[in-house]
Design a protein that fits this description.
GO terms for molecular function: anti-sigma factor antagonist activity. The protein is α/β, with parallel strands linked by helices. It has 9 helices and 15 strands. The protein folds into 2 domains: 113 residues, Transcription Regulator spoIIAA; 125 residues, Transcription Regulator spoIIAA, CATH 3.30.750.
Length: 272
């Protein structure tokens, strides 16, 4: 069985990236996912940022196939665009639901439905709405280019297309200080940031509630085949992770650099 990827321009600058199969029961796996990744990278680099990926010929996808779809979504989001999926297979829909990706992607039954929805949301807007959207995306890009973005007591920085550094800005993580950090981590994952380095060098004290926020974040991230690394310098903080037995679960480092390199290797494995 062979899969073929093609691109077709639709109205209003919408591009359909179609995955066709010469048989039934096609699987988007490590044999064919690289071709789809190549096509998505090329269309985004060409400035086509309103995309529909037609998977109606696909029965199911493996981890590599899902990773390519997520990577395509992140690329187009980073440039201010959007990406929708056309999925007809119940197995494929079940997999997207099981991994939580049904909350990340817009999923449609047909290409015309997807095109019409994207046209309404991204094209058929008033001049003022388009101007507002463009200005908002420009502000987001400037924030990323300038580096650190504030979120309450904490900051985060997109170090690359895949990896985000979160710096915890409080000296203790407990029942009182955890909720804002939990919200930040959840928001980042919901926006497709699946590789996080969390810098805990400012932390003097952490209790079980504080540790729990990272366990919850890791579960969310692993559902998207991502990774989470911690930067810990204080022995008292590291001791808490040892007591609970989580030093085997979380890769921990003394400084940010090695943590980023560690996740970078994970990203490379996912994209290969």
């Amino acid at each position: 069985m062979q899969l073929k990827v093609s691109c077709e321009e639709q109205r209003d600058n919408i591009t359909v990236v179609r995955v066709d199969s010469d048989g039934q029961g096609a699987v988007l796996d490590d044999r064919f996912a690289p071709e789809l990744r190549k096509a998505l990278v090329e269309v985004v680099e060409d400035g086509r940022l309103i995309l529909v990926v037609d998977l109606s010929a696909i029965e199911v996808a493996d981890n590599m196939g899902l990773a390519v779809l997520v990577g395509g979504l992140k690329r187009v989001h980073f440039k201010g665009g959007t990406l929708a999926l056309v999925v007809t297979s119940e197995r494929m829909r079940a997999m997207l639901s099981k991994t939580g990706l049904h909350r990340v992607f817009r999923i449609h039954d047909t290409v015309p439905s997807a095109v019409a929805t994207l046209a309404a949301d991204y094209v058929e807007k008033s001049v003022e709405q388009r101007r507002t959207a463009i200005e908002e995306r420009a502000r987001e890009r400037r924030a990323v280019e300038q580096g650190i973005i504030e979120s309450g007591d904490h900051t985060y920085e997109h170090l690359s297309e895949d990896i985000t550094l979160v710096r915890v800005g409080v000296d203790a993580l407990d029942g009182y200080t955890v909720p804002p950090l939990r919200k930040l981590l959840v928001d980042l994952v919901n926006h497709g940031r699946f590789y996080l380095v969390v810098d805990l060098t400012a932390i003097d004290h952490i209790n079980s509630t504080g540790v729990g926020v990272f366990v919850g974040a890791l579960k969310r991230i692993r559902a998207h085949h991502g990774g989470l690394a911690l930067v810990v310098q204080r022995e008292s903080v590291l001791k808490m992770f040892r007591i609970i037995g989580l030093t085997r679960v979380f890769p921990t480092f003394d400084t940010v650099g090695p943590a980023v390199e560690h996740l970078g290797r994970d990203v490379t494995k996912t994209h290969v």
